[in-house]
Give the backbone structure.
Amino acid sequence: MSVGEPVEVGPTPEGHRRMVPITGGTVRGPSLNGRVLPGGADYQFLRGPTLTELDARYVLETDDGHRIFVHNTALRHGSARDIELLNSGVAVDPSLIYFRCWPRLTTASPALDWLNTRLTLGTGVRQPGQVVISIFTVD
């Protein structure tokens, strides 16, 4: 998915907060194909120099018009230097970053009702201007 420039809230009593706008993207896989609708956001909580908690909320629209709400929580961990580079928009070798997520997918579509009753897990890679997420259903 494509993302915009981070909006820095800054250090709060709980830790450093920022928001990253989600501006679009594509979905491709064996069960779903479509696009990421613009207007979502990833609310980030930088727990420290090596750990970031992510809380993203956005909507997918399948090629046949069904909509899916995604609430994706994640952990991203790496060395202080690598996290600093990622947060400034610089590409970092994905093997140096632990990025795992738990996307919760819900829909009103009867054709995709199975999403409402499945647990999914995923991995992520942050690249300049985008995030690539691979999601797997746990059966």
About this structure: The longest helix spans residues 80-87. The helical segments are 80-87. The two ends are 25 Å apart (CA to CA). The domain at 2-138 is CATH 2.40.160.20 (Porin).
